[in-house]
Request: fold
Amino acid sequence: AGAEHGCPVTDPTAMAEAFDAFEGPYQLDPAEALRWSRDQLPVFYAPKLGYWVVSRYDDIKAVFRDPILFSPRNVLEKITPATSEAQEILKGYDYAMARTMVNEDEPAHMERRRALLDHFMPENLEQQQDMIRRLTREKIDAFIDSGRVDLIDGMLYEVPLLVALHFLGVPEDEIATLKTFSVAHSVNTWGKPSDQKQIEVAHDVGRFWQYAGEIIEKMRAEPEGTGWMHHTIRMNAEIPEVVTDSYVHSMMMAIIVAAHETTSLASANMFKTLLTHPDAWNDICADPSLIPNAVEECLRYAGSIVAWRRQTTAPTTLNDVDLPKGAKLLIVQASGNQDERHFEAADTFDIYRDNAVDHLTFGYGAHQCMGKNIGRMEMRIFLEEVTRRLPHLRLSEQEFDYLPNTSFRGPDELWVEWEPVQNPERTNP
Ligand code: HEM
Reply:
């Protein structure tokens, strides 16, 4: 069938057999790696992973739309099962990561989401805006005269982390430790660590768990504290059957990664994408009103969450494929985001695209990302500040490294350069 579209003939059964989520084409470019699937076999079983892969926009959306039949209970499960040695290590730390928000079933999920939604409403985010801009400006001040910086190290890692901690009301100590913890949590949940690596990761995850518990204790000692986790802790006292103890501890650990790593990676992907499309970059430098849609197009074209999970609670069919009860699904948003059936010229990056915002990077439906407007606001402010102060920015020659895993995607480093003598604020201060 591939030949009809002018692409090389592929044998879909062989492609499904060979599908590897941790190395090869999927790690290089998840959307491109599943083009054959979108065209020929949009729902397939990947034996190496033990998951059914879903690659078309409409099918992914249908799965997101029904959290009863397609339960999110496996969202934070270790995709590579722990070795018995790693399990023992985790036990030693009393590790008990359980249901948070993102992996909770109905009806408990909606009740909890409603009880904890207020902080995320746009009218309550205004106060974040000034802080994000101030932090962003300080970071740019620190490197603007240098001519070369790793944007992640210089800005995109720490600003989302500080914004997240502030939003949550979590004290800002141990920022360096949190980096190790976040990577360990990502590898533990979405990666394929070797048996040896599992041991190291288990210690970091165990320490992260204990650290989350200590933060909660510190925060409980400040009953008047502000921020979302303080609110959560108060709701835990008020309605413990809805906002449970287990939830509070699990969420404390998960949210640091959910609120921060996602945004850092999405922002890095955004700068990388725009700087490799100089026409788009020049257009937003000339007209900042294009920035909001450019952010959406970056989230569509190069989002930071490329795949998410669900598990069937009953036998069903998806796009004519029979799925048994308990089937584990890898729904690949990056592939849906480049599905020609929904997006015209889907593999073209186009900041003027009128339906860019339809992307699935924040998920969809009952569990759709609660922090999407915070993430967007940060990405928008990063672009506003950088395009204004460094319009002559360009990408340095470099090889990009990515942490091998199914879901979190973004380069480890992003080197950019410019001529400081041409900084607009030198001639026009
Ligand atoms: C859920 C992506 C930023 C908090 C999710 C989900 C995705 C996602 C894919 C699951 C959606 C679903 O199952 O339908 C992202 C991306 C971000 C980002 C790509 C940045 C660009 C944030 C931030 C916060 C946050 C900044 C918090 C401040 C949450 C929460 C949930 C969630 C609490 C669980 C919602 C629920 O299950 O009801 N996010 N996220 N996220 N996200 Fe985000």
Remarks:
- Residues 64, 72, 101-102, 113, 164, 167, 258-259, 262-263, 266, 303-305, 308, 361-365, 367-371, 374-375 surround protoporphyrin IX containing FE (CB under 6 Å).
